Queue: 3 jobs
Job 1
Amino acid sequence: MQAWTRLCAAAVLATVWQISGPAAMAQNQSGSSSGQSTTGVAPSSEKIPDHKIDAAAAALQRVAKLHDEFQQQMERVAEQAREAAAKAVAEQGLSLEEYASILETAQKDDEVRQKLLQRIPPADSGEKNGTNK
């Protein structure tokens, strides 16, 4: 599941990069080669050919659809993560309310926080299921 989340995040970042990166580079290149200012001002509509506007409209529609699709996927992944976390808590014999209460107390009480942290084994200790009691 963690790999899936990373994949979704990478896809979103790649999409954003593809949209903003080349556009910014093209703007800088065209601005510096033609003597135009690189202040981020878009060219006037007279300078943009209709076929480029058509292409931008199609791309915008596709990017919006991709955004919606990835948003839905991220929501599903988040729900799966919540369910897995609830299962992990229940497998330790705690209700979600008990778990939340303990963590809230640990945030406020140094002694409880230290006790809690002392009971967490190092990540490389080989503990896979966290069932040592």
Note: Helices lie at 2-34, 50-91, 96-108, 110-118.
Job 2
Amino acid sequence: MASTTRRVDWTFSAYLQRGLFAEWARVATGSGDETIRIWDAETGVMVGEPLMGHNGWVTSVAYSPDGQRVISGSNDHTIRIWDAETGAPVGDPLKGHAVSVLSVAYSPDGRQIISRSFDSTICIWDAETGAPVGDPLEGHTGWVASIAYSPDGQHIISGSFESTTRIWDAETGAPVGDPLDGHVGLVKSVAYSPDGQHIISGSFDRTI
């Protein structure tokens, strides 16, 4: 009997973006097939052609706050910026991480991009030029599992495999206070409350 091989491609990340006054809504997804796809959230129909350029799994995607750009992080160690309307790449890939890029996000004002990686660092990028802003944020001793901006864009939080959460000054990259200890398992996800007064963290120790 002839054998067959079936390729299975995983979808690693999805991001919903709504247009002004909610006139439209689109979803961007990143996949193990090395592409980003944009979908109409109402009909489920793909919009345009797949965005191609990465040479590895696309592990994270995000829209800019104004919906004009899509960013993607990949196992090929790079971040790419795309025109959300045309699907064309904007500028050259952003290079700075030594290994896979696991997550990307825009600052609330859309001026900066942050990325995290298996190299245990967080990088900040100028969203317009693609240039790195300062040195990578270093302090975690384990992989950085999650990153997020505060609502006012003044701080960045990160959760790590070494079971801590850290707060950083988004302008200087300096750590703010001591690491937040409490979990006994890796911190997989972190987020700010809408008013910026509280932080929540979720861990493999099954607690929040």
Note: Residues 1-8, 18-22 have pLDDT under 50 and may be disordered.
Job 3
Amino acid sequence: MRRASLRPIPKGAKRKNTMPYNIQGNTVTLGTEPFLHANNKHYIPLRDVAESLGGSVSYDNDAKASAVAIGQWTANVSMADTSVNVVGSDGSNTPVTLSAEPFVQDGQMFVPFDFFRDAFGYNVSLAGDTLSITNPNAA
């Protein structure tokens, strides 16, 4: 994984997208580009990416927690907690541990870029100037 193209973004700085995402084989421009956090992990905007994958996100500002639904799975994620609970439509419950803690800034939740791999089984890669997220089971 090459990191040179991702820049640390200072707290409070406005993030704008100059880096493309490749979502399910399509180039997508989202409002925020992936960035390198002070903890040396790459982060992406949870809602923007989930919605580009056809999912939905509900957010509880008081609890700083989100429920991300994609297909038959819902992942419950909270700020500063690496433990995520993924619930299937069949009632199955799968605990997942993230590589870094999610955080909220300016009313938006950010997750480590491998969140969608760990919680939903997507193939996720960062190569050069492109973050790619694909469903390995999509036709």
Note: Confidence is low (pLDDT under 50) at residues 1-15.
